[in-house]
Amino acid sequence: MSSPDPVDTYVHPPGNPVLDRTAARLSVTNRGPVGHAIARGDRAVVVATGRAVIITDVDHQTGRVQARPQRGRTAVEYAGVDVEVTAAAHHPPLPDDCLDGLSIAQARALLAPVASDNGRYPQYGPDYFRRWVFGRARHDVQLRGETILVAGQRCLLNTVDPPAGGGFGPHTYTAWITRRAHHGAAVSVWASDIDLEPADG
Which residues pair with 58 in a beta bridge? Predict the structure, then answer.
């Protein structure tokens, strides 16, 4: 008689990322491969059948997903732990000028699905950027040798909440960096490196 799979004891916490089988097993046992949080567009296999599918929707409240066959249109519902992600559908880096010409509402709407990585991380929902404002880099801004903003680049800034990662002190903002692959990043930047733009709503 085979021993039970520890993942069978996993219970999805409502509102959290939906984990695939490998990630759920790690959360229960604290050992083994990392696995994935699941997002729309991920390629996966159904554990019970080995069927290759594409994730079409994720319900963070129930921990269940909709997935269709790679060569079909009809989606079927599965528990997240019943699939294994084989290829994650990450966002590519965005162009440096991706926010130019947008209103603040349009910019927030653009970055929310990017930050959530197609819904992989539900904490970056529609309201996440609600208090963020526009700023422009006065010059190239670097972090550990990486250029995270180029001179003149428009970005979204959080000037209200504590800066990301604890920041460098009271004279910092949190900027959302769009040059990185996947879902970008919230990074602390010196206020002296950024010109704030007047709010437009």
Answer: 65
